[in-house]
Amino acid sequence: MIITVIGANSPSPRGAELAREVGRELAERGCAVACGGLGGVMEAVCQGAKSAGGTTIGILPGADPAEANAYVDLPILTDMGYARNVIVVKTGRAVIAVDGAYGTLSEIGHALADGIPVVGLETWELPEREELRARVAYAASPAEAVDMALAAAHERDRREQAARG
Amino acid sequence: MIITVIGANSPSPRGAELAREVGRELAERGCAVACGGLGGVMEAVCQGAKSAGGTTIGILPGADPAEANAYVDLPILTDMGYARNVIVVKTGRAVIAVDGAYGTLSEIGHALADGIPVVGLETWELPEREELRARVAYAASPAEAVDMALAAAHERDRREQAARG
Amino acid sequence: MIITVIGANSPSPRGAELAREVGRELAERGCAVACGGLGGVMEAVCQGAKSAGGTTIGILPGADPAEANAYVDLPILTDMGYARNVIVVKTGRAVIAVDGAYGTLSEIGHALADGIPVVGLETWELPEREELRARVAYAASPAEAVDMALAAAHERDRREQAARG
Amino acid sequence: MIITVIGANSPSPRGAELAREVGRELAERGCAVACGGLGGVMEAVCQGAKSAGGTTIGILPGADPAEANAYVDLPILTDMGYARNVIVVKTGRAVIAVDGAYGTLSEIGHALADGIPVVGLETWELPEREELRARVAYAASPAEAVDMALAAAHERDRREQAARG
Known about the structure:
The structure is a homotetramer.
Chain A: E1 2-7, H1 13-28, E2 32-35, H2 41-51, E3 56-60, E4 74-77, H3 84-91, E5 95-98, H4 102-113, E6 118-121, E7 136-138, H5 142-164
Parallel strand pairs in A: 1-2, 1-5, 2-3, 3-4, 5-6, 6-7
Helix pairs in contact in A: 1-2, 1-5, 3-4
């Protein structure tokens, strides 16, 4: 199962540490990690995943595989700039957001608009709006974020399989 | 000059009314309106623009021009789903966000990540984060939103022309 | 009705002349012209359309409206590189290909794969393959190309309206 | 190294057999295979790659991983329809085209326009045009196609590394 991790290019040291831990936990549970393939949170999550023998997919904004961070196994070269954010989000069965600036906000928006589960870890705290049913589910630790993302991804699989009949 | 207007498919009646007024104001000042081409705020802003003789561009998620609302002059058929949100945002020299749900949030994120000015009118109130310089500039009325968007768009033109040398 | 015109960035002088004439003919019949917005055939068709008072849409690969040729009324900023070719092709109710290199070949392929009528004017001559029903329809002059494109576009409108029920 | 294989959804039995063989050869030489993720040539190449223990990436037009053929390890969900063809082509260091209809033609066009090496195996025979330097290099067998693709990919790597300085 592929889980997407999103977050800033220039995270705080703590954001990078959280992302590394998320990557390690995902790999230990047999998940492949998809991300935007560049630095910061994207690099940290790939590094964490590789430290536990996982597989990492970097969905890059450009066309040059040399732009990928050193821990990306499979660079996907979109050459579509920010429009690749949509692919990053859709490729995971769930999304974990760590830290993050406006690019991350756009990805959270895409995911929630699309019914993709989003787990937040020290990331954007969106204002409560009762009329919107989809929500970021906030986790307190990398392990909890991964637990919540996997539970939501499995629930989504069940729901979509049921819809297929 | 093209100004982009974003907002929900299912706005409140007040949101739709604000969008119509924004469209009318933009057309009266000679701007073309770009939007996502569907219903709700997108339809209202096109209706307002047409009421004042403006030009409307609908950048659609699908491939069927019949999906465009009745006030779109020029349907752009992306057939790219939500990835078209990026094109909607980039096509305007500034963006006005009216009301809006998660799709709008993704567009605000894309715009701010990209240095495109965003004016908000009864839309998402994002938490203050000092480390992020780009901000939504909030307006109190449709006329003020259009004033602010045009000022920011002209400022952006000057800045980009200077950068071109 | 929007008709798309595709062709090379660096056409022969004759290719540019044909494109100008196609643009003029389209505008005289009340059609808006969509194209890739850059130079060569794209510039010539826009110039021709403007000479007859038409409307021109340039669907650009980048994010800078200054990349558009001088005859583009409405620059659509995709910032998606070559992926914008798909949008160029889909936005027209029919496609006229004039001259053209490999980018044009990709657009002809997209259009035929998608059931969009393609009229060719001194462009790629594809090998005959009986098992493929869609074909480029070759025209002998700009006026004939426009006649054929409009007939095919109207036929397509009728077919799609019938399919909608 | 990732090599892309393109070809028809509904190939001849021989086309599918060639694609299977190409997939097997690529996996035996340690390459990952990228493709459009659906049936026909895409399925056959993935099946061949998996028969030799390879890794397969399916870059899908939709958002549902269940659309991927049974031999795709890593489904990339673009939800961008045909625009995903561009990503399919760019993700490989070289492209092998087997059989193929108009979608494949669009991909050959994108690759050649972009300077990506294309090896053809019983696919589109494009008319010779002296003014266009990029060409499809035709191979006589799956093994030769893979040899040629790898040689071209390594040459491309050297050229791009030299350009980076």
